[in-house]
Design a protein that fits this description.
The complex is a heterodimer of chains A (231) and B (794).
Chain A (H helix, E strand, L loop, with lengths): L1 H22 L1 H12 L9 H12 L3 E11 L7 E10 L3 E8 L3 E5 L3 E6 L4 E5 L6 H12 L3 H5 L2 E7 L4 E7 L2 H4 L2 E8 L3 E8 L4 E12 L4 H8 L5
Antiparallel strand pairs in A: 1-2, 1-11, 2-3, 3-4, 4-5, 5-6, 7-8, 8-9, 9-10, 10-11
Chain B lengths: L7 H23 L6 E2 L13 H15 L1 E8 L2 H18 L4 E3 L8 H7 L9 H12 L5 H10 L17 H7 L9 E3 L2 E6 L2 E9 L7 H21 L4 E5 L1 H35 L2 H26 L2 E2 H14 L1 H13 L5 H28 L3 H23 L1 H4 L8 H4 L1 H13 L2 H20 L15 H14 L6 E7 L2 H20 L5 E3 L8 H13 L5 H10 L4 H13 L7 H6 L10 E5 L2 E9 L4 H10 L3 E5 H34 L2 H24 L6 H24 L3 H22 L5 H20 L2 H12 L1
Parallel strand pairs in B: 1-8
Antiparallel strand pairs in B: 2-6, 2-7, 3-6, 4-5, 5-6, 9-12, 9-13, 10-12, 11-12
Helix pairs in contact in B: 1-10, 1-14, 3-8, 5-21, 8-9, 9-11, 9-29, 10-11, 10-14, 11-14, 11-29, 12-13, 12-29, 13-14, 13-26, 13-28, 17-29, 17-31, 18-27, 20-25, 22-23, 26-27, 26-28, 27-28, 27-30, 27-31, 28-29, 28-30, 29-30
């Protein structure tokens, strides 16, 4: 009979974790990438969204360089990070920071793996991290061009053309609005820039350059991405 | 005209009338307004724990969950599942019965929980950080710069987090992440709590009851409201699967099935009994008198049970319905005497002739039920009390009421009425010698041996508690979907004061964490994970002081190099100094709305000090958990189901000894009236019946339970009656045999019905009685061969 009580526990627990999960920048990255494959009913121009979505959807694997600038109240100057992104619609995401120090993150549907410069790994599963499952779900929603999951979270306004577009995403749920003011994505064939504005005043700006589409990950990338599948 | 003075018979009848009126009045007044029927199956279970606080904990856990109903609505299409969940919740709300219906989860301030712990953050460290900081300290290392780097650059931040200014090294974030908050697969989605499994999306709805799930009115209202909401749901959202669980559904199902059984058993046994009575006596009078005597017996039994227990358990009620068949036996003997006497009938003489036999029979029955009362199960002692009072009252009716109302001799020719029993009697006495009887008994014993060898036992607790398989299936599905695995087992931790308690719990947590690493457990929940002991808090603070705040200049330097504003270091140092006297205590945590879901873990003050519960999850090896509890003082592993099973086992083994003892005792009672050889012979058919019943269970591969043994006690108490009645029959032997056959018939009818009860305890009980009594009645005429034999010798 304790089942009922524990359900109640979970309810509280999960509620508390959701917003922080959404706050993470990769969550936003996924949501935005995913959004492109989706067609939102709330969009100003559903047709354009649909075109952008199809344009992104056709890439199995995308490689890009990224630079991230983070402005936080506690910091004197923006925090700069540079690295490489490998995005595979089938496997997951490889986020490799190269400067100021080397560390890689692998993100899949069921787990997240942190690989330090010395090769040591730290792995955490969906069940350990509240909110990670949602990320995986949005990820799957993107692969399946399932608009429902994203529509639940954001209102979208799209401007520009298929060659140069800009999408502003505003959180619908009060829960998310508490910490997230707005997301902005822009790009052409690929996503080129993501801006995240938090209600605290923190700003994150990620720009992607040298984006290349590929049919499959390289052997070494594949090896890393495979570890997301291993039990 | 003078008023005729009532004769002795009328005075007796008057006394009966007064007693009967008192019984009926007492029943009526105690049932006024509502019938105090107890449907709580837990109330059946005996106290098993040596530690009274453990029993208290078991009840607290059951109560915590008892008054809530949980639903999952599933569909392949998630939008359909969401819409259905909202529509269903709306229907439940519209019913107005539930105090609260939860479907859409309210927006919450995520900073509430981290905000609560923030003032105490320099007293808190998770296990991994405590070990790491201690080892850094001993090896003169410093991991602060690295920690700061991780906090700043990690692209992913999950869970509860403090800002960089409040927690630059992520130590508080790590502590918050170690809180055992998440243990289920439910996630918020579209404002609902959702789980995905079996290709379906399941949405969660829960409803709180305004009162106890064991309140009969509540059960009825909830059942009606849910079934109406379900009907509406099936019409508006086709293809939706609705799963439910909750104490209220189990209690309602148990009540409905008990009511059905009481109805069926009493109807069938009453109808059958009346038919048998009419066939033998061909008169309405015995029918009416029999009903009066049984009616008095049952009302007195209900009145006394209610007066003693304040309520009557449904299992007692079902059993009570089957007592009708036994309670009427005494009246039947009187009717048989009436029939046998023919025109020589005198009510008091008739009573005197059978009186002694009836009394001995009552005593043996009372002894049979008396042993039930000794069993440590509340359910069985209530049944025993019910039977003791019911049978005594029925017996009393024969002495008080029947003589006054059965004055006229029987008009039916006794010869034709007892023609068949007469024939059996003569045949038996002429054809079957005492020697043949002994031979047959020996042969039956031989035949019984292979059956005995195949006997197997079953002591599972579920024998007592039968839950609706339909509901159990749904609960299992819900458990699987939301990822909650059954755990009625828990650790009870105690201490003289709160500090001691928390220290003992921390010692347990340490061991359990090792078991989690070894995959013996998936996790555990305990209050000390939220509020460490003061000793632990002081140790944590010392580690902060020796590492982070060991060198203020170095701290300032590390933060500055990473680009943090100068104020951050100043605020950190000031914050640490200011918090020197702050201690996280249990009370403020318990007052936090966020701790509500964990209140069941805290038992608070008990007679022995303070107590708390630690709830293990995903248990793979019970023995290792028991070993952990055994190795730690002040920690008890509580496994209610396991304890009850162990108790069943123990008492089943003891019950064989009890049975032998009871046989000896009844033999002694019989020796008060009969010679010892006769007493032996009176016992023989019943003992044979018991032996054969056990053997039959072996042949049929029916596992032996404590309740079979209890049934055998009664076979002994009731079966001996038949032999006594026959022994007492004397000149009216054939009428007595008719009576015995009739008694056996009515008893078999009612206990036979009990064998079909959905409650396994009652059904094994009924099955044992059915077989045992049938065999004792069939073998009872054996006595006649010996009587004949003994008579000839004397």
């Amino acid at each position: 009979m304790q089942i009922i009580h524990l359900v109640h526990n979970a309810l509280h627990a999960v509620l508390k974790h959701l917003p922080s999960a959404l706050r993470s920048s990769h969550r936003v990255l996924f949501a935005s990438l995913g959004f492109l494959a989706a067609t939102s009913g709330h969009a100003a121009d559903p047709e354009l969204l649909s075109i952008i979505g199809k344009q992104i959807e056709q890439h199995q694997v995308v490689r890009a360089d990224f630079s991230q600038a983070k402005q936080m109240a506690a910091l004197k100057r923006p925090l700069l990070t540079h690295g490489k992104l490998v995005y595979s619609s089938r496997h997951g995401v490889l986020w490799q920071i190269e400067r100021p120090y080397r560390v890689s993150y692998l993100l899949g549907e069921t787990k997240i793996i942190e690989i330090s410069a010395d090769g040591s790994r730290k792995e955490r599963g969906v069940r350990d991290i509240p909110g990670l499952a949602q990320v995986g779900r949005v990820f799957r929603a993107m692969l399946g061009a399932d608009t429902n999951a994203l529509q639940a979270h954001f209102d979208a306004t799209v401007t520009g053309s298929a060659q140069q577009w800009n999408i502003v995403l505003q959180p619908k749920q009060a829960q998310v609005q508490q910490f997230l003011k707005q997301l902005q994505l822009s790009g052409g064939q690929f996503v080129e820039q993501i801006d995240i504005a938090e209600t605290s005043g923190d700003l994150t700006n990620i720009t992607f350059s040298n984006s290349i589409a590929a049919a499959a990950p390289s052997a070494s990338e594949q090896q890393l991405l495979d570890s997301l599948q291993a039990k | 005209m003078t008023l005729r003075k009532p004769d002795a018979l009328q005075q007796r009848a008057l006394l009966w009338l007064i007693l009967a009126l008192v019984a009926v009045w007492s029943c009526a007044s105690q049932m006024m307004g509502h019938f105090p029927l107890q449907t709580n199956l837990l109330a059946l279970l005996p106290a098993t724990e040596r530690n009274p606080v453990a029993e208290q904990a078991v009840n607290k856990l059951a109560e915590a969950a008892g008054n809530r109903a949980v639903f999952l609505l599933g569909h392949e299409n998630e939008q359909a599942a969401f819409a259905a969940a909202r529509a269903f919740a709306k229907q439940l709300r519209a019913s107005g019965i539930f105090s609260h219906v939860l479907s859409d989860i309210p927006a919450m301030d995520p900073k509430q929980i981290s905000g609560f712990f923030q003032p105490y953050r320099y007293n808190l460290l998770n296990d991994a950080d405590r070990i790491q900081l201690a080892s850094d300290l001993s090896q003169n290392r410093n991991s602060l710069a690295e920690r700061l780097q991780n906090k700043l650059y990690a692209p992913f931040r999950f869970g509860l987090t403090l800002s960089v200014a409040d927690d630059p090294f992520g130590l508080s974030d790590n502590w918050l992440a170690s809180l055992p908050l998440k243990n289920l697969q439910l996630e918020p989605d579209n404002g609902l709590l959702v789980s995905r499994s079996d290709g379906k999306t399941w949405a969660f709805v829960s409803a709180d009851l305004p009162d106890s799930a064991y309140n009969g009115d509540i059960q009825h209202q909830v059942a009606t409201a849910v079934s109406m909401a379900e009907t509406a749901l099936k019409a508006s959202h086709p293809g939706i699967i609705l799963l439910r669980t909750g104490t209220v559904f189990y209690a309602d199902a148990a009540r409905a099935s008990a009511e059905r059984e009481v109805h069926n058993i009493s109807m069938v046994s009453l109808a059958g009994m009346l038919l048998l009575l009419y066939l033998v006596f061909r008169s309405i009078r015995p029918l009416a008198l029999g009903l009066l005597s049984v009616g008095f017996g049952i009302s007195a039994a209900v009145a006394v049970t209610l007066a003693v227990y304040g309520e009557i358990h449904l299992i007692t009620l079902v059993f009570g319905a089957s007592l009708i068949g036994e309670a009427i036996d005494y009246a039947i003997q009187y009717f048989a005497a009436h029939l046998g006497a023919g025109s020589d009938w005198d009510p008091m003489k008739g009573l005197r002739r059978i009186g002694a036999g009836l009394t001995v029979a009552l005593i043996t029955s009372l002894m049979g039920y008396g042993t039930l009362a000794l069993a440590p199960f509340p359910a069985l002692s209530q049944i025993a009390l019910f039977a003791l009072v019911g049978l005594t009252s029925a017996w009393l009716s024969v002495f008080l009421l029947l003589p006054a109302l059965l004055r006229k001799p029987n008009r039916r020719n006794p010869e034709t009425a007892v023609a068949l029993p007469q024939k059996i009697l003569l045949e038996w006495q002429h054809r079957i010698s005492a020697r043949a009887c002994l031979l047959a008994a020996g042969l039956l014993l031989l035949l019984a041996i292979p059956g005995w060898l195949q006997l197997k036992a079953n002591d599972d607790v579920h024998l007592l508690i039968a839950r609706s398989p339909e509901l159990v299936g749904q609960e299992e599905a819900i458990r699987r979907i939301i990822g909650f695995d059954n755990s009625s087992q828990f650790f009870l931790v105690e201490g003289e004061d709160i500090e001691q308690l928390l220290q003992h719990e921390e010692a347990l947590h340490k061991q359990l964490s090792q078991l989690v690493e070894k995959n013996v457990l998936t996790g555990y929940q305990g209050i000390a994970a939220f509020v460490p002991s003061k000793r632990r808090q002081a140790e944590n603070r010392a580690l902060w002081s020796k590492t982070v705040f060991a060198d203020e200049n170095r701290l300032t330097q590390v933060l500055e190099e990473a680009g943090l504003r100068d104020e951050v270091a100043v605020a950190q140092v000031a914050g640490f100094k200011a918090s020197a006297s702050s201690m996280l205590e249990i009370e403020p945590w318990l007052q936090q709305p966020l701790s509500t879901p964990f209140h069941h873990l805290w038992l608070g003050q008990t007679r022995q000090g303070y107590a708390a519960i630690v709830l293990p999850q995903g248990i793979r090896n019970l023995e290792q958990l028991r070993a952990v509890a055994a190795s730690l003082p002040h920690v008890t592993f509580v496994d209610k189901a396991g304890s009850v099973t162990a108790l069943f086992h123990q008492y089943r083994q003891w019950s064989s000894l009890w049975l032998l003892g009871a046989i000896g005792l009844i033999f002694l009672v019989l020796c008060l009236r009969y010679r010892w050889q006769q007493s032996m012979i009176i016992l023989l058919p019943t003992v044979l019946a018991m032996v054969l019943t056990l053997s039959l269970f072996g042949y049929l591969h029916i596992a032996l339970t404590l309740f079979n043994m209890m049934g055998l006690m009664l076979v002994l108490g009731v079966g001996v009656n038949y032999a006594i009645f026959l022994r007492e029959g004397g000149a009216h032997a054939s009428a007595t045999l008719a009576g015995v056959l009739l008694s056996a018939g009515t008893t078999l009818l009612s206990f036979g019905m009990l064998a079909f009860s959905s409650m396994p305890a009652l059904s094994s009980f009924g099955m044992t009685l059915l077989i045992g009594i049938a065999v004792s009645a069939f073998l009872a005429p054996m006595l006649l061969s010996f009587d004949h034999h003994l008579d000839k010798r004397t």
